[in-house]
Specification:
alpha/beta; Ribosomal Protein L4, Chain: A; 2 domains; 34% helix
Length: 206
């Protein structure tokens, strides 16, 4: 499929041929859902923790004698049924991550790219190189292009001046090709890929 290439100033820079295997698939929500869930589960901290009855700070002395009180039998005040006692089978630190085959992760990335292309939310840039790292200049260009929530994917390395200028612009994310992922692509309204990024993605996802 062919797509117009633009410059940062909005001018035309010709066209580019996009691989149908990456940008021409019929997007499948089930595949995208599985990959996004895998990403978010791996990102979850899993540091939740409660105290068990062996960790609370009450005395371990038996609170009253076993028989003769007319009440229920109890040991110490750390039991879960008492206020400020230990929690029974509460959460403990663990990993929420799970495995997902590499082939499936690549497939998910292809479907994410295809989803943006099918929705008309894919833009191909000639280059993002800047002579001077000026946030005000870049912010003006982004506003004129109409990008409110955009993800920009460059080649193997992001231009240092562009990355510096973009880091203080709200709603604008910049990633190298190896950082491209399904979650970040889907959560932004516009996906912007440089020509170098297109070549690198095609090489990565073959």
């Amino acid at each position: 499929m062919k797509l117009d290439v633009i410059k940062l100033d909005g001018g035309s820079a010709g066209t580019v041929d996009l691989d149908e295997a990456l940008f021409g698939l019929e997007p499948r929500a089930d595949i995208l859902h599985r990959v996004v869930r895998w990403q978010r589960n791996n990102a979850q901290a899993g540091t939740h923790k409660v105290k068990t009855r062996s960790e609370t700070s009450y005395s371990t002395k038996k609170i009253y004698r076993q028989k003769g009180t007319g009440g229920a039998r109890h040991g110490d005040r750390n039991a879960p049924i008492f206020r400020k006692g230990g929690v029974y089978k509460g959460p403990t630190p663990r990993s929420h991550g799970h495995d997902l085959p590499k082939k499936f992760r690549k497939l998910g990335l292809r479907h994410a790219l295809s989803a943006k292309a099918a929705a008309g939310e894919l833009v191909v840039l000639d280059s993002i190189s800047m002579d001077v790292a000026k946030t005000s200049v870049l912010a003006k260009q982004v506003k004129e292009l109409g990008w409110k929530r955009a993800l920009i994917i460059d080649g193997a390395d992001v231009d240092a001046n562009f990355a510096k200028a973009a880091r203080n612009i709200e709603g604008l994310d910049v990633l190298p090709t190896m950082g491209a992922n399904v979650y970040d692509i889907l959560k932004r309204d516009t996906l912007v890929i440089t020509k170098a990024g297109v070549e690198a993605l095609e090489a990565r996802l073959k």
